């Protein structure tokens, strides 16, 4: 009878209420306009990068292969949360079903964890290219690129399944209000009507540890790169420094959020929504800005693609 009662309690919550970004209507409208612009620019910029790399044979190199993967992930990552948030701006209740919430959590962690692994792989790619240029095509060949891509996607999937499984096994019988504008594991676990101390430790051990370890690996990689740049000529040094600085900017903003959110107990802070906004709407836009506007090869390829399109339209 006790187990049956617990089962009935665990099925009481069929919908969660999302608090959104703000209760102030004017702030909500302003955020809607800003986030909509950021999302549209994210889609256009990242999709354009994928198309450009696909059609320009000169960009069929390991570095741009990983960059196209990063653009694809950024499109998917922002699409998991932003459209729902935009729709909820005009809704009073901001409801999300339990199944939709679980689905959102699964894909959020799938794309986020895969991107963390991909950024780490991209750092290794830059390390080999700068520190061991003569061995680059041997170490980072196409077979290795495909193997690394399969590995990071598999790792992200396993990570997401593990976290989602831990979350859906908990009983939810109220409260049902999530203190954010999307479903995430820490906020949802906090609503379970049972002791979640062990689950929170597992979340920190999983997501938090992955973020911290990858960040340390990235810092060590770039430290080695910077040391090796001391032996290069002035022009090559500044070009390599520019590439590393761009990569570090994306890494710091992205992993900074993950470390802040997942390396502590499931408690709500005022800064959470700000970090989440950067995580879901701002960071995915940095990819096309940093890797396209500051990259001569990408700008030349984009111009070539635009010229080809104009020629087709005039015929």
From TrEMBL:
Domain G-protein coupled receptors family 1 profile: residue ranges: 45-291
Superkingdom: Eukaryota
Location(s) in or outside the cell: Cell membrane
Main localization (coarse): membrane
Gene3D superfamilies for the chain: Rhodopsin 7-helix transmembrane proteins (1.20.1070.10)
GO cellular component, one term: plasma membrane
UniProt xrefs under Pfam families: 7tm_4
PANTHER family hit by this protein: OLFACTORY RECEPTOR
Function recorded in the entry: Putative odorant or sperm cell receptor.
Protein name (Swiss-Prot/TrEMBL): Olfactory receptor
Gene: LOC114489778
């Amino acid at each position: 009878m006790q187990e049956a009662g617990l089962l009935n309690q665990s099925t009481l919550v069929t919908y969660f209420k999302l608090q959104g970004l703000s209760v102030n209507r004017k702030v909500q409208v302003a955020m809607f306009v800003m986030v909509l612009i950021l999302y549209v620019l994210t889609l256009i910029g990242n999709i354009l990068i994928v198309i450009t790399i696909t059609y320009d044979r000169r960009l069929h190199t390991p570095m741009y292969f990983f960059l196209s993967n990063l653009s694809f992930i950024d499109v998917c990552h922002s699409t998991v949360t932003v459209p729902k948030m935009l729709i909820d701006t005009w809704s009073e209740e901001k409801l999300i079903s339990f199944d939709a919430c679980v689905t959102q959590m699964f894909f959020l962690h799938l794309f986020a964890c895969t991107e963390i692994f991909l950024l780490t792989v991209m750092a290794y790619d830059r390390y080999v290219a700068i520190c061991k240029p003569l061995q680059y095509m041997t170490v980072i060949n196409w077979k290795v690129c495909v193997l690394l891509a399969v590995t990071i996607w598999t790792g992200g999937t396993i990570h997401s399944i593990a976290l989602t499984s831990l979350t859906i096994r908990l009983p939810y019988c109220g409260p049902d209000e999530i203190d954010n504008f999307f479903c995430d594991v820490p906020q949802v676990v906090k609503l379970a009507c049972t002791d979640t101390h062990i689950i929170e430790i597992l979340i920190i051990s999983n997501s938090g540890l992955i973020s911290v370890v990858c960040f340390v690996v990235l810092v060590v990689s770039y430290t080695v790169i910077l040391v090796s740049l001391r032996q290069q000529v002035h022009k090559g040094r500044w070009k390599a420094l520019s590439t590393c600085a761009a990569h570090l900017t994306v890494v710091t903003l992205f992993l900074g959020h993950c470390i802040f959110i997942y390396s502590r107990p499931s408690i709500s802070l005022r800064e959470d929504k700000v970090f989440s906004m950067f995580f879901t709407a701002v960071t995915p836009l940095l990819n096309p800005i940093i890797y396209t506007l500051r990259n001569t090869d990408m700008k030349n390829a984009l111009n070539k693609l635009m010229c080809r399109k104009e020629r087709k339209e005039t015929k």
